[in-house]
Each structure stands twice: as C-alpha cells, then as structure tokens.
Amino acid sequence: MNVARRETRAIAIYDTYAARALAGETLGRDDARAVLSAPDDDLRALLLAAFRVREQHFGRRVKVCLLRNARSGLCPEDCHYCSQSAVGKAAIDTYRLLPAEQLIAGAEAAVARGAHRYCMVTSGRGPSARDIAEVSEATRAIKARFPRLEICVSLGIMNEEQARTLKDAGVGWVNHNLNTSERFHPSICTTHTYADRVATVRAVQRAGLATCCGGILGMGESDDDVVELAFALRELRVDSLPVNFLLPIPGTPLEHGPSVTATRALKALCLFRFTNPESEIRAAGGRERSLGTWQALALYPANSIFVDGYLTTEGLGAERARRMIESLGFTAEVEADGAFQPVHL
C-alpha cells in the first residue's frame, strides 16, 4: 500500500471514531486498543480526528490551571509513584497545611499568570475536620476577591458531608484520580483501594460538585489497563480528566520507570478524547518530559494544561505556555471581559 493510500485509509478510520464520539456513541474496546497501538505514521490523522471532537465541545480555547501544594509530604499512603508517600525517600520539602494567607497568595499568583482554575492540594489519606474548615476559610476569602476564579481542591479520600461543606464555601471542583485500572491498582498502592477512589468521586458528585478525575500513564500498566481506565472515567461521567505521565522521581519505588514516549502520550490523549468527548481533558504532570518539543500537539486532543509546575516538580512557566498555546492558533480561556478583575475589599 503506497503512502497516500495508507494515509487516506487512516483518516477514514479515525474520522469514524470521531463521528461516533460526536454522536454520543461508545467506542468499542477493540477500537480503543487500536488507537493506542496505531502506527506512528498515523499520528497526524489521529490528532486531526481527535481535534474534531475537541473543537466541537471546546473550540480552540485552552483552560490554564495552576496548582498549589498546600501540604507537602507526611503522607501515610504507599502510592509508588508519589514523592510524598510513606515509602518514598525523595528529597522534598515537608510542611503542614499552609495558612489561609499563603493559599490566598497562591490564588493571586494564579490570576497574575492567567490561570482560570486554581487547585489546592494536600498530601495525606484524607482531610480532617480542621483541614476542611481551613480550606473552606481560604476558599471563601479567595472567592470574595476573585469571584470568577474556579476553585478545585484535592484532599484525598472524603465523604459527601465533607464535600458539601467545601461546596458551600465556594469550591467548584474536587480532584481525586482513579490513576489506573481496577486490575492494576494493587500494583501501585496497597493502603487504599480502587473502590475507595471511586467512592470518593461518587460522594463528590452527590454533593453537587464537579469532578476532576484522571490517571497516570507509564507505571507498568498494559494497553488494556489504559483502555479500562478510559471507560471507567466515561462511566463515572467525570467533568475534568487530567492525564499525567509518570515522572520517575528519585527515591520513589518507580524511580527507574521508563519515560512515556511522545507518540504514546499523544495516542493516549486521543483515546481519552474519543471515549470522554465532553470532558475537559488536561495534559498534566510529566507532559513536559514525555512530549518535549511536541507539547503543543497535546492541544489537539486536550483543552487544558497546568502551568508553573506541579506538587514537587517543575513545569512549563506561564509565559512560555502562553506562547505555546498561541503558536498553533489556540487561545487561553478568559472571562468575557478579557480578564479576572479582583474585588478590592
């Protein structure tokens, strides 16, 4: 088969996947596996098909998000990928929950860097009553100053009552990732279960909050595990779906893990777009290392990114991210008036 004929055939196949996603139909598991195992020569056709779905739901807008590590280290869980876990020996800063003033300052920094969503993250199994109270206090102050800034929190395993308290304070999203498939989960964590994670997502939904729930690729999972994760997230109807790529951090059990290649990362993002067409898809942690100079291509299937780093690792700065977004004709998502205007108290 000559190159032109092969490309035409690939375009037809992946356009069919896009059409099914746009029609609200579920991609078959065989087709989902075919996306992950697609020849690298098909990548252009695959990205353009995924972009059809992305453009239908999100146009060319890119949601910029910024993280604040609100409590670092000191975690009793044994998540093998995490530098803050009980089994990790990574050289990181450790500290208790930051005071409200510093969390508010983080929100100010997020707005200054053009972020539309600000996510406060704490290490630990789950939040205490004091954690909920203090994060709620900070959220109220942030929303008073920046009413339209989207607030997300990632506090670990929580129940519906805790989620309702956060919602009342002005939190709009709760992040709690499934991370991988139910089958593979015991290989990366033994101190809590996959079912614990699903229960938290459902509790958040019952409380009326939007869900931010995705996974991590590159931990030793199979293609079938990635496919099962994609379908589990579809079943949960998650609102926001961060796709992380393992950063093998020295001092963690997965420190010698292989990097996710750029082509593998892009194919996975396309898969999550086809299977979760209406969800925000965020090219998240590790994208800088896995995608390198191909980072901008992630914006064809994904409509959101983090800027200015992650919990204990660095990331692309806000200004460089802005230039990257604009380089392919995308635009950072802003309010109707063009900016977040702080309310001066």
Describe this structure in words.
This protein has 12 helices and 10 strands. Mean pLDDT is 92; it is low at 336-345. The chain is of the alpha/beta class. Strands 1, 2, 3, 4, 5, 6, 7, 8, 9 and 10 form a 10-stranded parallel beta sheet that branches. The chain folds into 2 domains: 3-52; 61-332, Alpha-Beta Barrel (TIM Barrel). Helix 4 (100-112) packs across helix 5 and helix 5 runs parallel beside helix 6. The protein has helices spanning 3-22, 29-36, 43-58, 100-112, 129-145, 160-169, 185-188, 194-206, 223-236, 262-275, 287-291, 318-327, and strands at residues 61-71, 117-122, 150-154, 173-175, 210-212, 215-217, 240-245, 280-283, 304-306, 331-332.
Regions with little confidence, pLDDT below 50 for 5+ residues: 336-345
Q: How many β-strand runs?
A: 10
Helical content class: 40-55%
* Beta-strand share of residues: 5-15%
Shape: globular
* Cα-to-Cα separation, first versus last residue: 68 Å
The average pLDDT value, as a whole number, equals: 92
Q: What is the makeup of the main sheet?
A: 10 strands, parallel
How many structural domains can be distinguished in the coordinates? 2
Count up the helices: 12
- Our Rg estimate from Cα atoms comes to 19 Å
In CATH terms, what is the fold-level topology of the largest domain?
TIM Barrel
Q: CATH H level of the largest domain: which superfamily?
A: Aldolase class I
**What is the annotated CATH architecture of the largest domain?**
Alpha-Beta Barrel
Q: Decide which structural class fits the backbone.
A: alpha/beta
Q: Give the class-level CATH name of the largest domain.
A: Alpha Beta
> What is the succession of H and E elements?
HHHEHEHEHEHHEEHEHEHEHE
